[in-house]
Amino acid sequence: MKKLISFRDITVCRDGGKLIIANSRIRRVFDFSQGAPRTISLQSACGKELASGKNPECDLSFIGLTRPGSAEQPWTLRELSCRIAAKDIYEPERVIVTAVMEESSGKTEYVRDCIIYPELAALAVETSIRTQVVPNVFWLHRRTIPNPGAGESSADSLLPAKGVRVVKSVEFRGRTDVEDTPVYEHRSEAAEMTGNLLYCSAADGSGFIFLQEAPPSGERRDFELYDFRIDPETGVVHSCSWGIAPDDFRDGRKTYRSYRHVLLVHDTEAEREMVLKQYLKRRFDQSAFHSVTVNPWGCGQFPKLVSPKFLKAECRAAAECGATHYQFDDGWQNGRGLGEMNVKNKHITPDFWGLRKNLTRHFEDIIHLCGKLGLRSALWFAPSNNVEYRDWRSSAEILLDFHRRYGISCFKIDAVKIRSYEAESNLRSLFHYVRRASKGKVFFNLDTTSGQRPGYFQFLEFGNIFLENRYVFLPPGWVPRYHPDKTLRALWLLAHYTRTQSLQIEVPYPGNAVNPNVPDKQPVHPPSLDYPLEYWAAVALFANPLLWFAPSQVTVSERRRYRKIMELHRSIREPLFAGEIFPLGDEPDGKHISGFYSTSGFAVFYRGLKAVKTKKTFPQLKDWDCEVLSGCGSLDRGGLVMPEKASFVLLRKKN
Prior knowledge:
Beta-galactosidase, Chain A, domain 5; 8-stranded parallel beta barrel
């Protein structure tokens, strides 16, 4: 056996046609005898075997291209190398093992990168293709042609060991303009399943998880109508979704790169809950992106209000609310607004992104005032989706000019439609270029409200997630109409599988419940007003609060109430976010007690307006001795007591 590399607890070895990649938490063995990798072993930290050595298939294939394993058209392993990659602004230190494979008939080259991190129970793969032919597929998405193509695109696969069974897939949804439920669990033994996550476990709690760092299922371009497939004959589990459609191949000189697919292993059920969050924490360092951001779009009137006087008043009021950032949304620019591109399909030129005429001579003063008040400025921006972001370089220079001239380091990215591989590649180039050119100082709020967006697991190396649910002032029956229990439910569902540290969570203003722009049939007293302002604000305590209103329209006394909650959040944020955050209690619906806890020793609970029970026990906190930091309630060995309806309580574990 030849050792190719050794770095910290990572070792990479070659034994004839076998490649072994391992650290202290995970070990995966590939057989390259057919010119392509075939997983024959996957082991966890305690040596539990999770994959069968009788795997009949190679780990990857692309629909319409020659599959590996063919005697008539064989693949060849041309090169195998590995290197240590130092920590950069996108990822921590890691080892990358690269296999270059060739299929001679179509003159197709595959480059497979296996990425492993020290002391993480995770191994990721990304694959690039360059081919002189196009896939032999009828790419008709209506599926009216029988047998439309050859096989499927499988980005990674393995045969589970005996006793390891598929438990569930987890599907995520963005588009919060129309979708109130961001997470769906599919518990079945169907051959085809959708989602970014697939869980496979044995009776003893050991198992593995497939993570696809890809957009939500409903927003992808892949030819397959599913994300995972379990072969009913062989039992092989396929993680599909390359992020490349057959018709994306246009140039035989160009390389097309897949989404990242990650295998995570665990020995127990408790580990299963942690390994995903541990990976996300290491993979995507979000610490520089934490904020309390004011975005005035939630008031429903921002573009018509924009003036130097209004924005200066906004900055002063934002500081009084306890914010760290003020975000100038759609309306600051010379162009008339997002509708020019999204509705009129206008071709956007750089002059669109000049400053609005009434701001030209005053913008620097406004930015300076923000700085004096202790606020950082942020800006809304919508790259040109109607040209597939081919103008990404000029967009990048616009953003960098605002960064260099005014010190703006946060840009909210809206109107994203990654409808093609070209669009996604260009958008990635935009983010990469700006992050690199600013030496990591610029980051992005990735809006998830509509379109085809990167979602909850893609592009997080560039920024965090702008999540809402959304407007207070809409009439009954309209979607998306804000209610604190809806926002709490969305966060609670996402907290099972994502890090809430990466989410911006909406905190609106009750005074916007009646909006002059939407006068028809508005209730005098919408249900959301049955909850106090402090409850609305406290929903975001374990995430990044997004103050979704124009603070200058808020009374001075109400600004003080917001500030109290925001200062509370900021006072605990660093130790709170150092832990991993998980949901507690029942799914929020206004009738129960729900909450979150951080493994670093914090917990928060919310009692719905219609909750009958005032007491509840939580096994996760059975040994906690707590002090109350804010709100109304107590927790001891007898359980949690919350005597008041529509209330919250924030607790800290005593040393």
